[in-house]
Amino acid sequence: GLTEEQKAHGVITASAGNHAQGVAFSSARLGVKALIVMPTATADIKVDAVRGFGGEVLLHGANFDEAKAKAIELSQQQGFTWVPPFDHPMVIAGQGTLALELLQQDAHLDRVFVPVGGGGLAAGVAVLIKQLMPQIKVIAVEAEDSACLKAALDAGHPVDLPRVGLFAEGVAVKRIGDETFRLCQEYLDDIITVDSDAICAAMKDLFEDVRAVAEPSGALALAGMKKYIAQHNIRGERLAHILSGANVNFHGLRYVSERCELGEQREALLAVTIPEEKGSFLKFCQLLGGRSVTEFNYRFADTKNACIFVGVRLSRGLEERKEILQMLNDGGYSVVDLSDDEMAKLHVRYMV
Q1: 183: Cβ contacts below 8 Å, ≥ 6 apart
Q2: Exposure letters 6-32 (e unless 16+ CB within 10 A, then b)
Q3: Interval 131-146: pLDDT, tens
Q4: Strands 11-14 and 81-82: what pairing?
């Protein structure tokens, strides 16, 4: 616990997610000032929640690691007590109590999938499960663009990622913690990474199946579970995934809705050059064989040709996408498949 002197000076932490809210809430209960440093790109709903719990928010840095550096600097300058967001035994133990609740609900699990940012939740869950039910496999799930644990496991020690993606901002950490890495390396059974499309598809699954709205990092474990099942052809097992957050801005759901079709291989995004003449788009649509066009952007190229950006609904996934590409090529069209192009996905509504 905190000494009276520490309480008088207050506490400080850095977080882009639930830890920020937990520190703000606990500090308010203790009557202690809490300064929470959050990245400037943090979702408004998280910032508002921290302030609602009584915490003071300082927005600083492009990512968690820059916010953390600022928080540590302020703790040294102004006498705040630094509360680590993940790399501390007490924090790891506290997050690990989630596993105890999980086992109380269902002790007959075969595998548990847990999201990884700094590794506190994964380390705590893995340690507790292996102490109580060692036969249960614990699988870590990371976002491909912020997979600091996988990088550390490959290197044999924690390393800094050159950059981190911010879509799943709650797990956007450049470097795994030293203590969390030690525990994850010892107690985790496996690790898997997923891309943003898979996360979006998992968010959709949660909404359709149980009417739960998760943030990207919250749906991360489900995305990993789906991919793991497909890769290992798992059947007849009892699986659990940890839904770790629902701090999503409402306006961000549109972006998720657009991308989840790609994540489920239900849409192809194509850049096609067609003749600049009357009826050419009709002929193009006829060649598609009655498939639904989900997106259409037109750009004049010259007097002879036009460039179109088109989305096509798929019913048979990757196989059908390949058939469409072959059909368009055979029909004499110049076509580029943008379905896996990150820039196209990010700016699909604006590529005119």
Answers
A1: 92, 119, 123, 126, 127
A2: ebebbbbbbbbbbbbbbbbbbbeeeeb
A3: 999 999 999 999 999 9
A4: parallel
